[in-house]
Design a protein that fits this description.
about 300 residues, alpha/beta, Metallo-beta-lactamase, Chain A, 2 domains, 7-stranded mixed beta sheet, 6-stranded mixed beta sheet, binds zinc ion, hydrolase activity
Amino acid sequence: MTGEKIGPIEIIMGEKQSRAPYSTTLLIRGRQGSTLIDCGGGPAVYAYLREQNIRQILLTHFHPDHTSGAALFPEAQVLTNPFDYGRLLNQAKREADDSPYRPVGPIQLIYPYHQLMTVSETKLLMIHAPGHSDGFCCPYFPDLGVLMVGDIDLTSFGPWYFGPDSDIDQFIQSAQQTLEVDAKYFVTSHQKGMFELADYRQKLPQYLEIIEQREARLKQAVKRGCSPGELVYENIIYYADNVRQTPWILRNEQMGLAKHLLRLIDHGEPYADYYAEFMQAHRLQREQIRQLHQPSWYGRDWKGANQK
Ligand SMILES: [Zn+2]
C-alpha cells in the first residue's frame, strides 16, 4: 500500500475509497519517526502504518471516522484541538473497550490553532475551520503548499453539518476561507482524494451550491403545504427511502432540516412557526440542534494541560 507523495507526505486513502466510516490519512515521514494526520483508514491501512514508526497522531476533529484507529498505536502521542480534547477523553472513558467508538487511548495533548509547529521535521499549521464540527481544522503545510481540507470533501452528496455543534453558515465561511490559503494541493478526507488548485477553485462553489439546493427544496416543500412531520420524506438532503429505512439517516435529515429552518430564520425569513412545529413533530429540543461549546481549555493555559 502506498499513496500519492508530496515531499515527506504520503496521502493514504482509507478502505472503500475513504467512504465513511473510513477516511484518508496523511503520513509525514521524519528521521526520528513519523506523524499521522487523522487515523480512520481501516484495518488494511493500520497494518501498513504499524510498519512506519508512528510517534505522533494529530486528529483534525472528534468524529469516529477520523479517529477510530488511534488506539492501535499505543506508543504514539495523540493530540487533538482545544474543542475536542475533553470530548475525546470522555468518549474514551464512557465506551467499552471493544466499541468502535472507543477511538483513542488517552488523548495526551492539545495542539493550538494557528501556530506554526514542526512535526517530523515538517512545518505545520492547524487552521481552525468550524462548521462541519465546532473544533474542525484544516492542517496546512506551508513549505509544501498542501492544505488538508478534510470533510470539506467535495463529494456529490454535499456538505455534512448534522452534528449538534455543526453550523451551516460557518461551514460556508470556512470553506471559502480555504481559498485564501496559499496552497497548490487540497486533500479531502473522503472518496475524492486530492485536488490541484484550479480544479478545487472550480469545484468548491458547486459543492457549496448543494446547500442552497437543499434549502430551495425545503422552501418548495413548505410552500406546497408539506407538514413538518412529513418534511423528512421530501428528498431534501437524503433520499426518502433511506430516511425510512435507516434510523441514523432519519436523524441526520431531522438535524439538517432543523438547521436549515434556523438558518432561514437567522436570515430574516418567516419560518419561526414552521420551525416550532417541526421541532415538536420530531421531538427535538433547540439545544440538541445548536450546541455552543467553549474549547475544553478555554481561558486556561494549554501548555499547562500539555505538561500532564
Ligand atoms: Zn467529520
